[in-house]
């Protein structure tokens, strides 16, 4: 297959960076180009264009989930209206709106927050996250890089969970989330080398097993994509089966697969619509890629894109792989 023969060139270094930009530029014919992304150019009801040029619409949540989310948004909006200059009220309104899939509205809310609180790194952290959701990676990198500058030399702080885990224990911090999402945006653009600094910055503020496995998964993949296998193997050393992981069990299982303690067949489930399941599917597909099974990886990526969970990081990553592949094989 011509696409498979050209794969290794499509995802390395500057070539990967440039080919994805070409795809995004082509999508701009419909108004979804990165750096442009004008919402008015989107079809009514769409939140973004995919990296393949398809409009993306919010997925309806189950009735009970939708009712809870609507209740949370009403409460957050009431808090905001009572004190529209309060930074926490702005952040929670933006987060609650984003959980409902209204990413463009959330971006507008965080943009208002930036106007009112230009030195608050949380505003840039959350807006950067949602730029990733709508496939505008350059804007995400700009926001998250600025957030990283704002927190440099400042003590880290726990970031409250919008959707608490079963133990009610927050597992992430402001700085870890900034570095995580910045590294992700760079990874999605195919700039694996540039992402390494953010992985190291994340590791410097890591304090628990959930943080360890989350960053180790992406760090390992970036190093393997760069052919730095010995460094990738070193990333796996602290990961053991008995880690007390609360939330990021998907990343934990992938890392154990990379170590040979689980098999790819144990994990591959492309039919999963859960974001963690899609993340696992992407990890398995990419494991085949950097182990030389390009055609199998491509088939798996395309299988992931048959699902509907387009806002999940595993789905966006698979979409970016296919965008690079199709650009490189054109």
Please summarize what this structure is.
By secondary structure, the chain is an all-alpha fold.
User: From N to C, what is the helix and strand string?
Assistant: HHEEHHHHHHHHHHHHHH
| Low-confidence region ranges | 1-39
Would you report the number of β strands? 2
**SS strand fraction:** under 5%
What number is the mean pLDDT? 88
Oligomerization: single chain
Structure description:
The chain is mainly α and 330 residues long. The protein contains 16 helices and 2 strands. The protein has helices at 2-10, 13-27, 63-82, 87-99, 103-116, 121-133, 137-151, 174-188, 192-204, 209-225, 229-236, 249-258, 264-267, 275-290, 294-304, 313-328; strands at 48-49, 55-56. The chain has a two-stranded antiparallel sheet with strand order 1-2. Helix 3 (63-82) packs antiparallel against helix 4 and helix 14 packs antiparallel against helix 15 (294-304). It starts with a helix and ends with a helix. The model is unreliable at 1-39 (pLDDT under 50).
